[in-house]
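Reference record
================
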Amino acid sequence: MTPIGESAADVVVVGAGAAGCVLAARLVVAGRTVLLLESGADSDALENRLSTPGTLDPSADWGLVAEVVGTGTRVRLPRVRAVGGTSLLQGGIALRGLPADHDRWGAVAGPQWSHQGQLPFLRRLEHDEDATSPSHGTGGPVRIRRARPDEHQPLHRAFLDGCAELDLPWCDDLNSQVTTGFGLMPLARHGTRKVTARSAYLTPHRHDPRLRIRPGTHVVQVRTRGCGVHAVDTVDAAGRPHTYEAGTVVLAAGAVGSPLVLMRSGIGDPEALRAAGRPVRHALPGVGCGVRDHPATWTTFSLDEAGRGPDPLWFQVMLRHFRAEPTDQGAPGAAAGDSTRGDAAPGGLPDFAVEVFHDFRLLPSATAYRRGVLVVSLLEPRGTGRVRLSRDAADPVGGSVELDYGDPEDVAGLLAATLFGHRLLGSEAIRGLGIDRAQLVSVAGHGGFAPPGTPRWFALRTHRPGADTIRRAATTSHHLHGGCPMGPSDDPLAVVDERCGVHGVPGLYVADASVMPTLLRSNTHLLALSVGERVAALLSTEAR
């Protein structure tokens, strides 16, 4: 067993988030030496503190704020600056992408990224305690389960009953190939404890001499020599510079961080680099482009029957549905009394998602269990965003994010989906919890508030928000992906090839949610883990 030296490693991984933890662990098991660089801390205390949803300590938050194009609204994008990354903060939701989403990816980048091509890596990462199909894994590091009936909160039971009351289809497994309908949320949980990338992948290997973790190490840039990668420049928490030699570097800094590292390294759109005062070392116009998210609305309401604390499974149920035909009986678009979009989701695929949970933003107050939240997300929006590099040397992030939630088709779709969500709240089952009024809130800032022109509280039976209200209330689902899109070398906007290698820069890779070139109609956590699994497998087979 060869221990790693201070500067020498077979692979340098930048970012110890979801994908970075996977890469480090799998490469070490394959016999490679790995240097894992992370800007934030490596803290058991932080992981324990974030085991339930709540407020992120500013010292562990990148402080990202996105500007919504067209409205000027600023939306917080909480991202954990620590070993484990945002897997420490996200709600433990373990949803796969839809098979059709992966097939669209495969059509762009090759069959290995299709559903069948990616399925072995999805199975490899999971240990699904409820598995009834060979499409699920049972030996992976990420334990997945669903809430048992005795764990259901009154709100979650009422949601399931309300969906049945509206004659919506039941989905036995939201991670199966048929995912339309309402069902139990797959959760990355071992008992009630959230399973993070840090605990599942990194903790079992952190004492392996082939692995060196460097927390408090901010990557400034990747250096190239000739046409290939040569070194990584960093600064520590005290501002001291250090350069690590590197023949293979994998960026796993996420949909915002990985494009920014490339741009700081002089790799990106020449015009944008010059505008930010950066030299152009390698032209790749697609860096930072095509960032996708799911615009969402939040509706809050009070409950007569409080949920149980102190550590429930917060996210237990979900509805994902589509409108195959505008006149379908029971279809959400028709049920809401409004059409979704003129070009309803093609191929009979899900169009939006609905979730309910208790308002964890009020923790640690017990009032969190007497307040409910309904979140409606548009799963196939047209609008895309981008990541830009900053000229401000004092900017700790080094860039900015723009998101576009204002496409008229998207606003119409989100309005119709939100109206259906409100109709679901008005079902007899949910109304039995004492719900008669609700508040459509903007969560763009640190708290929630009614968008301009919206009643603070409104009667669900009589009030219908309009398109302008929805446009101003639209916020993030925290599902950013894209920014370093995958594609062939003749695609002018492709950043990485089918092996996640950066076009034209041998030895430099990107392996996280930023590489997805098409839209994912799901949460992004398992996406990041599965990309890490695949790239680790690729690098493990390459000659040293």
User: Anything to note?
Assistant: DSSP finds 13 helices and 25 strands in the chain. The radius of gyration is 23 Å. Residues 408-425 form the longest helix (18 residues). Confidence is low (pLDDT under 50) at residues 324-350.
